[in-house]
Amino acid sequence: MTDIISGELKPDLDASSADSETASAVTIIVCSSCRYPGTPAETFPRPGSALADATREAAADSTVDVRQVACLGNCKRGLSAAVLRAGSWSYIFGELDTDNAADLVAGAELFAGSSDGFMPFRNRPEALKRGLIARVPTAANLQDLK
Ligand code: FES
Question: Which atom of ligand 1 approaches the CA of 34 most closely?
Answer without folding.
Answer: 2
